[in-house]
């Protein structure tokens, strides 16, 4: 099947060249980082995690969200997802590759990855994060490729695939739970020190990841004859709506716990995000924008009549993705490090080189996803006779 990635339209190869160009530009900045260290980023003594780890966290959620299709398709035999299931699994592969890439660029020198292996111990959350991420990548590669190969040959997938599918469902929950434990295991960071953090991560993932998948499949539908199916779009958008409601509800639980209990350590990061702290207000525009986008997306998504109208569904999903990205990809890190142990604010914003290096990772994921989806669409076209 791999040969199907080697031929295509000028638009397909144009997209690949664009991703390669972005990877090359970002790679140049990465070489600068390798030579000069993380001093070219906005990181500091007080803010040791930044844009890279924030993107890692967000993309782990995107990877985990594939379970929103896998679970109903395999557990409940919901066949409406038959056209989207392989797209979701391939999106998970690209997302995990991006996650691993963000970890590599965050540690400065890539060889430091060996420390996790050389000094591996089950008492380390980072060790378990490595295990679950790489395991999830292998599971999705094996399941996705084997299932697509069987579909291409018009045979039933091997029986050993089904246990792996069930394992991948549990694994999907574990990858984002372990990521949350990385944060919640730091007792000095009040914003992250909450038992509900893993649940918040999962609820955010289960609305943002499927939204990205749905937006991209609708875009592919515009560019090709691929149609994910009206029922699949309707069901997935309903799932997204419920997950987003739960995500917002969990955030209000955090607000109540912090402010009704009048806990200074828990109130300060939230005040910093939405009202500023000690005169530092650089995050407030981002967070209020995220809040308005989240509310706006729910206004458009909750009424079934609006949700089922694609002219309203698409902007709602875009608002949801941007809102959750600002919350999880920006606010989460900044609030965790504010205030610092000296009750001061150390401002952090990613530098230009930092964002270009992150763009390199996103372009890598985009390249992988484009190739995988191209193969999947070609196979479906060949089997069904039209796409």
From TrEMBL:
<comment type="similarity">
    <text>Belongs to the NrfD family.</text>
</comment>
<feature type="transmembrane region" description="Helical">
    <location>
        <begin position="355"/>
        <end position="373"/>
    </location>
</feature>
<feature type="transmembrane region" description="Helical">
    <location>
        <begin position="12"/>
        <end position="32"/>
    </location>
</feature>
<dbReference type="InterPro" id="IPR054823">
    <property type="entry name" value="DsrP-like"/>
</dbReference>
<keyword id="KW-1133">Transmembrane helix</keyword>
<feature type="transmembrane region" description="Helical">
    <location>
        <begin position="240"/>
        <end position="262"/>
    </location>
</feature>
<feature type="transmembrane region" description="Helical">
    <location>
        <begin position="125"/>
        <end position="152"/>
    </location>
</feature>
<keyword id="KW-1003">Cell membrane</keyword>
<protein>
    <recommendedName>
        <fullName>Menaquinol oxidoreductase</fullName>
    </recommendedName>
</protein>
<dbReference type="InterPro" id="IPR005614">
    <property type="entry name" value="NrfD-like"/>
</dbReference>
<feature type="transmembrane region" description="Helical">
    <location>
        <begin position="86"/>
        <end position="105"/>
    </location>
</feature>
<keyword id="KW-0812">Transmembrane</keyword>
<feature type="transmembrane region" description="Helical">
    <location>
        <begin position="282"/>
        <end position="302"/>
    </location>
</feature>
<keyword id="KW-0472">Membrane</keyword>
<dbReference type="Pfam" id="PF03916">
    <property type="entry name" value="NrfD"/>
</dbReference>
<feature type="transmembrane region" description="Helical">
    <location>
        <begin position="52"/>
        <end position="74"/>
    </location>
</feature>
<dbReference type="GO" id="GO:0005886">
    <property type="term" value="C:plasma membrane"/>
</dbReference>
<feature type="transmembrane region" description="Helical">
    <location>
        <begin position="192"/>
        <end position="219"/>
    </location>
</feature>
<feature type="transmembrane region" description="Helical">
    <location>
        <begin position="314"/>
        <end position="335"/>
    </location>
</feature>
<feature type="transmembrane region" description="Helical">
    <location>
        <begin position="164"/>
        <end position="186"/>
    </location>
</feature>
């Amino acid at each position: 099947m791999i040969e199907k990635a080697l031929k295509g339209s000028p638009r397909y190869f144009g997209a690949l060249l664009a991703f390669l160009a972005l990877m090359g530009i970002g790679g140049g900045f990465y070489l600068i980082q390798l030579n000069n260290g993380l001093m070219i980023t906005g990181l500091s003594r007080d803010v040791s995690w930044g844009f890279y780890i924030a993107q890692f966290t967000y993309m782990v959620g995107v990877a985990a969200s594939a379970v929103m299709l896998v679970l109903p398709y395999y557990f409940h035999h919901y066949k409406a997802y038959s056209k989207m299931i392989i797209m979701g699994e391939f999106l998970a592969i690209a997302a995990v590759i991006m996650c691993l890439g963000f970890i590599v660029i965050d540690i400065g020198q890539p060889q430091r990855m060996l420390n996790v292996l050389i000094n591996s111990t089950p008492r380390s959350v980072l060790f378990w994060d490595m295990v679950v991420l790489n395991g999830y990548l292998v599971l999705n590669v094996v399941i996705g490729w084997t299932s697509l190969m069987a579909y291409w040959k018009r045979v039933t997938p091997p029986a050993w695939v089904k246990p792996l599918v069930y394992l991948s469902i549990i694994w999907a929950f574990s990858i984002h739970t372990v990521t949350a434990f990385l944060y919640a295991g730091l007792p000095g960071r009040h914003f992250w020190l909450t038992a509900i953090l893993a649940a918040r991560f999962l609820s955010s993932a289960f609305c943002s990841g499927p939204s990205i998948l749905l937006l991209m499949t609708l875009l592919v539908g515009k560019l090709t004859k691929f149609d994910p199916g009206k029922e699949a779009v309707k069901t997935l958008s309903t799932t997204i709506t419920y997950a987003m409601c739960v995500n917002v509800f969990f955030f209000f639980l955090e607000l109540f716990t912090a402010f009704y209990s009048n806990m200074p350590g828990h109130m300060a990061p939230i005040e910093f995000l939405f009202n500023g702290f000690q005169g530092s207000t650089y995050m407030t525009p981002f967070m209020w924008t995220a809040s308005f986008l989240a509310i706006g997306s729910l206004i458009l998504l909750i009424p079934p009549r609006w949700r089922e109208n694609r002219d309203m569904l698409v902007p709602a999903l875009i608002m949801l993705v941007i809102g959750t990205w600002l919350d999880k990809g920006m606010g989460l890190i900044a609030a965790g490090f504010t205030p610092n142990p000296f009750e001061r604010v150390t401002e952090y914003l990613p530098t230009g080189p930092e964002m270009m290096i992150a763009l390199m990772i996103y372009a890598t994921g985009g390249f992988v996803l484009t190739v995988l989806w191209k193969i999947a669409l070609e196979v479906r076209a060949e089997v069904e006779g039209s796409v």
